[in-house]
Amino acid sequence: MINAYPLVRGLASYIVPQKFFKRPGSGGTFSSEYCYSVWLRHLVQLNNCGLITSVHDIRNLAEIGPGDSLGIGLAAMYTGAENYYAFDVIKHTSKEKNKSINDELLQLFKEKKDIPNGTHQFRNTNPVLNNYQFPADLVSITTEDCNDRHQRIEKYLNDLGSKDSAIQYVVPWMGQKHGNVYDIDLIISQAVMEHVDDIEFAYAEMQRWLKPGGIVSHQIDFKAHEMTKDWDGHFYIQPFMWNILAHGRKYPMNRLPLSPHIEAMEKVGLTIKNIVPVISKNNFADRQTSVPGTVFKTDDFTISSALIQAVK
């Protein structure tokens, strides 16, 4: 059930410094097409379920875990966001990388490319949509708009680190005071919240940052992340063995299924408005889960990923 590499890595990490096992980057937003696809998917889903009626509803955006680039937030600035707060735990990105992503996003928006989907790179990208055409009815953008926004983003990236920049990159974000990071219209994350140890704290912070009526949109991946062959095998690994496996990982995994995330959001005052699940086979129907302190509900055994959108 357990894959060989994470086991060897975990055992070796008690002897060899962990830095030798940690791959560079986050394996995420290094592609402008990926950033473009992810942002438009969240945007379309927000519109489909009535949480926004216009891109102008999103003026202040925050992202948890932007990863290799700030590209998802930059894509949001092309569709109308004015201020972008990027919160991460490890600094991955650079000014040069983000400028390159900005140049590539300019071309994607100028050409109003359809939302990337179906190729090898995007075969597992969520959330899923019914229609992957460029959402022209929602995103009204001209070539002049694109050029103007590209120049403004370039300036913001040059000023990155200045308190006056419309883009704020905060690393590490947990345990720090963030000044007046309030009045946020939307908080987004993509395959990040499964790596947060204290989800109640994280969701409480998000609730505090949001303005009344503000939205969270989290795509969460509940799968085993290379630990086991089966998508759900990590739910059944005993704590002692899990500690060994997790010791060599770059990022933690909280092993929480869907229901604890819903409960944590509701506990801090967020109202769930939309859930888009990915359904997978339950491979261990006759076994007891081994995640300490977590009681699994029926849907937790078959939902391998989900978009959760909620409102303050």
Summarize the structure.
The chain has 312 residues and is α/β, with parallel strands linked by helices. The chain is 31% helix and 16% strand.
Provide structural commentary.
By secondary structure, the chain is α/β, with parallel strands linked by helices. The protein contains eight helices and seven strands. The chain is globular and about 60 Å long.
- CA distance, first residue to last residue: 41 Å
Total number of helices: 8
Q: Please, what is the average pLDDT?
A: 90
The strands making up the biggest β-sheet line up spatially as 3-2-1-4-5-7-6
Identify the quaternary structure here. Answer: single chain
Largest sheet: 7 strands, mixed
| Number of E-state strands | 7
Radius of gyration, rounded?
Answer: 19 Å
Q: What structural class do you assign from the helix and strand content?
A: alpha/beta
What's the shape?
A: globular
Topology:
Layout: H1 4-12, H2 32-48, E1 60-64, H3 71-78, E2 83-87, H4 95-110, H5 143-158, E3 167-170, E4 184-190, H6 199-209, E5 210-221, H7 239-247, H8 258-267, E6 271-279, E7 303-311
Parallel strand pairs: 1-2, 1-4, 2-3, 4-5
Antiparallel strand pairs: 5-7, 6-7
Annotation keywords:
7-stranded mixed sheet, 7 strands, 312 residues, single chain, alpha/beta
